[in-house]
Structures are given as structure tokens and as C-alpha cells.
Amino acid sequence: MKNILLGNFDLGFKSVVIQDKGPRSRRRIPICLIAQQVLNSYVNYLKSLSEKCRFLDCDISKKIDQTFESHEPLFYFFGESGIKIFMPETHAKMVFSEYYDLPPNWARHKVKTILLDEGASPQHVKRMMGHVENFEFNEAKFHSCQYADLVKISRTINDWFESLGVVNWQP
After folding, report:
1. Per-residue confidence at 89, pLDDT binned at 50, 70, 90?
2. What is the pLDDT of residue 1?
């Protein structure tokens, strides 16, 4: 997943528009309830941080303001060496490389495996992942996967998060 902007999400984080595999991969994906709660908490945290930094660290405050205007990515780190954009595949590999030799897209494939193991339709999972066949378009009026099918997949992801003990993050 490349740089996700706040403008990619609808109000309340119920869905996100992703285009990560070229122009034909554009799709709207429903976001599971736990992820909605986490994203809302994260945005509230950024708002609070921006207010606290407004007069202490103008660079951080400006970066957050640009994030809210969708001119900067939604996810980044604040570290001793400055602000760094968060790239899931890069940062996950850095964290886990000491223990595992993970390919850059391992998280996508883990989610795909969980969904298929839980009985999700392979065609719907492909659609969610942005894998389209020749002559298929994600936003075409007549295709086999409807938004309601993706909502079911979202619920499966939410159930998986619950089984892992993922809870809403409160800064």
C-alpha cells in the first residue's frame, strides 16, 4: 500500500478508496469496525498533537495540518531523526526481519489466507485485493462482486482482529 491520504477515506472511516496496482485496481473497500475505531482514535490523537505542537514545534504541526488537507500521507512516524512516512511493507520487514525472512507483501497474503480459510469467495477476495482479470473493472456496473460481499469480508477481518485481541487504541 502506497501513501494513503485522509481523503481516501469516507467520513467515519467506513470505507477507503485504494488504487495500488495501476489504474484498473481502483476500488472502494469497507473497513471493519475495529479498524474504524482505531482510525478515529488516531485522527483524534493527531488533532490533539497538532494543538499541543502549534507553538512548540511548527514543523510537526504543519505536517499534521497538511495531513488533514490530504497533501501528506495519513501514516508516519515521529522519531529522533525527524518525520518519516510509514510504509507497511517496509516497516513491518524492519521490525520482524530479526525473526523472520518476510517478503514485502506478506501482510496482504496473510489476510488473503485468513479470508480463504474462513470460507470467503476467492473471486471476492481477489476483487478486494485489486486483482482483476482481463476485461474486468472494479467499478463496473455488472460484475460478480457487490459491495455487500466486501462488507462480509470486512466482518471476517473484524472477527480475526477480535481473535487476536486487537482493541481500540487510545493514546
Report:
1. low
2. 46
pLDDT at residue 108 is higher than 50: yes
**Domain containing residue 79:** 6-164
145, three cell numbers: 462482486
Selection from 76, 100, 70 nearest residue 7 by Cα: 70
Tell me the pTM: 0.77
End-to-end CA distance of the chain: 25
Whether the per-residue pLDDT at 27 is higher than 60: the answer is yes
**Does residue 171 lie within any of the structural domains?**
no
Tell me, yes or no, whether 169 lies in a domain: no
Asked if residue 139 is part of any domain, the answer here is yes
Which residues neighbour 64 within 8 Å (Cβ) at sequence distance 6 or greater? 46, 47, 49, 50, 53
Q: Per the structure, how many domains does the chain have?
A: 1
Residue 91, CB-side half-sphere exposure with 13 Å CA sphere: 10
C-alpha dist (Å) from residue 86 to 60, 64, 143: 15, 14, 34
Give the integer Cα–Cα distance in Å for 4 and 19: 10
Of 130, 128, 168, 126, nearest to 150 by C-alpha is 128
